[in-house]
Amino acid sequence: MPETFDLTTAVYAKTAVGQQEIQTRSLGLSPLVRRILVLVDGKRSGSELAPFLSGNGDIEEILGQLLTLDCVEAQARTKPVASQAPAAPAPAPAATAANEGGESSSSEIPGLPSAGSRSAKDNEMARNFMINSVNSIIGQNMRVSLVHDIFHAETTEQLRVVYHAWASSMSNHGMGAKRLPELREKLFKVL
Questions:
Q1: In a shared domain, residues 95 and 51
Q2: Average pLDDT for residues 76-91, to the nearest whole number?
């Protein structure tokens, strides 16, 4: 490993020790550190893993601990960043294609103002609200792909497409179903 890495921009992959730890839990990692280890997939950077902490820890400290224990290995991002950038906004072209075909887009939610009226701050608040509600009600690591999709939804249209999966996940969970009307009302203020 080179002398220094920016822990937030480096991409992480599990080592054999990390894979073993997932199976055996022999190192006695805290739940927060274990969660990050489980989420390490060889594609995400430290900054992309940070939202999964829900404000409960420092990603650099956790990644440092996993590196020290040889559970993960880091590689500095160089040119792959440019090739990965178009992958994140992929949901938007699909929604646009549906609109061009004259069909109703899944980003349309009755009763909400136009997507263009929402600011970047509104999008950030909606994204955080959706991620935090999934983590606190359904459980951390239970809907990782949903949290990933929410995190990577950059525009209001993309958030509204992901909203349907969020609402479905909430309605399929006992506590989530009970709280869905209240959560929906709060979310719609910024979505």
A1: no
A2: 43
CA angle (52 as vertex; 43, 66 as ends), nearest 5: 65
User: What does the pLDDT read at residue 79?
Assistant: 40
Q: Give the DSSP per-residue string, 114-178.
A: PGGG--HHHHHHHHHHHHHHIIIII-TTTSHHHHHHHHH--SHHHHHHHHHHHHHHHHTSHHHHH
Residue 49 is classified by DSSP as H
Domains: count for the chain: 2
pTM of the predicted model as reported, rounded to 2 decimal places: 0.45
Nearest CA-CA partner of 190 in 134, 109, 91, 98: 109
Write out the residue range of the structural domain in which residue 169 sits: 89-188
Report yes or no on 6 lying in a domain.
no
